[in-house]
Amino acid sequence: MSHGRPGEQAEGVGSRNMEDDASLKFRQQLLLLHENLVAEDVAALKFLCTDLLPFKKLENVKSAVDIFQLLMAEEYLNEEDTFLLAELLYRIKCYSLLKKLGYTKEKVQECLHEKGKVSPYRQMLYELSENITGDMLKDIIFLLQNCLPRRQITLSALELLILLEKQGLLTENNVQILEDICMNVSPDLLETVSCYKRAKVSLPQQENTLPIKESSLFRTGDIRVFTSRQETSIKSVGSNIDDNKAANLTQGFSEMNLELPGEFSNVENESKMTSYKMDGPHRGFCLVINNVEFDGSLQERKGSCKDAEELERVFTWLGLDVRTYKNLTSWEIKDLMRTWQHLQDHKDRDCFICCILSHGESGAIYGKDEELVSIRMIMSHFTAKQCPQLFEKPKLFFIQACQGKEIQRPVYVEADAQIPELPTMQQSFSPSESIPEEADFLLGMATIDGYASFRHIQQGAWYIQSLCSKLQLLVPRS
Q1: Long-range contacts at 227-230 (CB < 8 A, ≥ 24 apart)
Q2: Among residues 182, 286, 402, 468, which one is catalytic?
Q3: Residue-wise pLDDT tens digits, 312-342
Q4: How many other C-beta atoms are found inside a 10 Å radius of the C-beta of residue 154?
Q5: How far apart are CA 389 and CA 226, in angstroms?
Q6: Is the pLDDT of residue 231 over 90?
Q7: Strand-by-strand arrangement of the 208-209 sheet
Q8: 29, 107, 382, 430: most buried, per Cβ within 10 A?
Q9: Could you tell me which of 430, 204, 161, 390 has the C-alpha nearest to residue 285?
């Protein structure tokens, strides 16, 4: 029986000693991390691992060491590969602890695209929980009391989200309950959810600019009235905005009242409110946000200043106090909405109008910094709860921006025009992406969801120019 040469035996023992030393050093690193993580950090790590580790085992976790052991058991973590742990520390913003694993914040960021394991869905939920204050959490629990266990328990934001997932009310493909909660508690929270939904869709979409005759392009205006829990279309999708049906939008925007179909009124008050009184001391404010130039790859919106000037002229003629803002970033747009949301002067006004001219994509518009802002989030600042000064007053929003990249089939006037092979228009619209579930709102858009809008580089956008033309033609003035 051979026992090998003495040199080979010594080499094997040395190799095992080195492995033992590496394993010991690795576990010492983990123990050091454990000592620097407080209870809230452990809860956050546990939440972020929900999609990676068996849920029953996670329920028994009491410390960071428990999580480390589970990660090692599932082969997510070992002395040769600590990236998942580094990602988790990065997600909970424990940047100072990354160096104990040999990482920096910047190095983790570089590797996330290829090696990241925490799903966008889980990231979104965690970010949302971080922005929910104690007062907000109380309001959310009150709103959801019929969905929660009858026994009195104290829940953190993360525990509440897990509970909603357990009950099947919240999933990766259905975040409607989050949208409903955010809209009622804090519109600013909506942006986190909207960003998650848009991430599944999109590359930046720009308006199509065609230096051609206005008469040679079919003009589409999708204008809808939204009531509580339902919607009523004033204009049929795909109908020409030049026809007489445009009177539905403008028929009664007169000195005394704004006549709109009864569906636009609150259902509970339908019998007593079939028109909006416009007899206050002031007509109202009209905001015009005109984004022409952008910081990155989005093209300059030539012709947009023509639209802004026309909107200012027509709405001033209608008696509104028009305020124009040019080239606002996404944060400046959000701050502007918050400012106007809290304006006390609304109580002496009859209505509120907001016009936004920019690039955009499904359910959102771009700021100058090329960051998206949800249309629904913008509108939700002015619900009855968020802006009581505008309660039971009409709030009109007009959006000139792409909502996708598809092109609607044009109708050419010239007999020798070539008709390109274009996809059939999909008559679809996703109101959950863009409207608050409140009465007294009207949203008019230059195009339907998923499609591009058009703007003449000299004469402006067909939608805005037609809107202004019809407002001036059809609205009675004394």
Answers
A1: 227/263, 227/264, 227/265, 227/266, 227/267, 227/439, 228/266, 228/267, 228/437, 228/438, 228/439, 229/437, 230/263
A2: 402
A3: 999 998 889 999 999 999 999 999 999 999 9
A4: 7
A5: 19
A6: no
A7: 208-209, 454-456, 460-461
A8: 382
A9: 390
**How sure is the predictor about 281, in pLDDT bands with cuts at 50, 70 and 90?**
confident
pLDDT at 394: 93
**Tokens linked to 278:** 């416009």
Span 346-399, pLDDT tens digits: 988 999 999 999 998 878 899 999 998 888 889 989 988 889 999 889 999 999
Q: Is 354 a catalytic residue?
A: no
Q: Alpha-carbon distance 190 to 336, whole Å? A: 16
Catalytic annotation present for 34: no
Pair 289, 328: CB distance under 8 Å: yes
Do the Cβ atoms of 411 and 419 come closer than 8 Å? no
| Cβ-based burial of 214 (10 A; exposed 0-12, middle 13-18, buried ≥19) | middle
Tokens of 102: 């040999």
- Residue 278 and residue 271: Cα distance in Å, rounded? 18
The catalytically annotated residue of 49, 286, 359, 387 is 359
Is residue 122 within 8 A of residue 192, CB to CB? The reply is no
